[in-house]
Amino acid sequence: MAVAQARLKEQVGKPAAQAGRLAPPKVKPEEFGRLHAHHFDSYNAGAEQVAAALKGLSAELTALAGGIGAAGQSYASADQANAAQVNQQAAY
User: Fold this and answer.
1) Domain layout of the chain by residue ranges
2) Which residue intervals make up region (Disordered) (predicted)?
């Protein structure tokens, strides 16, 4: 689980980093063309939503990595306790 946590931690920033490339869009309304400029607002809103989703994905991956790390520590503690109990019973 520690390996999975480490790999997730390596990747968590990548989606958020891409969000900056999407919003605000680098294209301008006039670049949509005279007939399509009125679609720019929808395009811009969509780009903002995708950027927000990428930032949210990074946050969720961070939380997932933390949860995996906590679960791994919990399993390790339980394994140590069980091993100690087995060793104690084996001594009888």
Assistant:
1) 2-90
2) 1-27
